[in-house]
Design goal:
The protein has 244 residues and is mainly α. It has helices spanning 2-20, 26-65, 72-110, 113-119, 124-163, 167-177, 180-206, 212-242. The protein has one domain (23-238).
Length: 244
Amino acid sequence: MISFLGQCVSNFIQAAKYTLKGNVRLSSVIVQISAIGFDSLGISLSIVFISACVIALQVAHQFLMSGGDSYIGGFLAVALIREIAPGFAALAVAARAGTAITAQVANMQVTNQIDAIDVLRVDSIGYYFAPRIIAGSISVFCIVLLAELIGVLGGAIVSYFSIGLHPIRYFNSVWLMLVTKDIYVSLLKGIIFGAIIALVCATVGYNTRGGAKNVGESTTKSAILCTIYILVADLIMGVLFYMG
């Protein structure tokens, strides 16, 4: 695990140097944004929307019985924007697009396409990693922003139909309890999580050797590693921004 983390850091630095030299083509980034963001958008928003609705449904009656129904919107918005939207959206992208990145890079590795790139004296890590890391950060950033809006609206709908909470009271509590810092941190999480997904999955694919069986094993491994690294990064950011 430690050696793999070191390799990920090394690959990130190499991809950053490749990017700073101006070698990354905009067309490559756009293609990757389409593959990562657009293909994962539906499942990510669905997961966050359903999660917000379930939480609102579970807590609405408890808040109502304790006379705190005016705080439902604020409670849900804080929980959703701080943790649920960035975390669930990133995990969905990792499961959908991250595994696809691993399969693509691993396929190129086992069929010697990456060796061919190296023979042409092209930095294979920069060539394959940089567009995916940039696209991953942009895609997850946008998905998290949309997921937060969809989740808050989903909570308002469920609160209205379950306990009759008026949307004005719901959004008033959101406005009172939510701070700008929460939104900034959640969007920063989206950028970092997106980069982690692309970096980890591409590294696992790049390390793949063998044949088709090994490609499948690498895909499973990348999903597990992405989950671990996303949760660890989430914990570290929570400590940095909210402890004390």
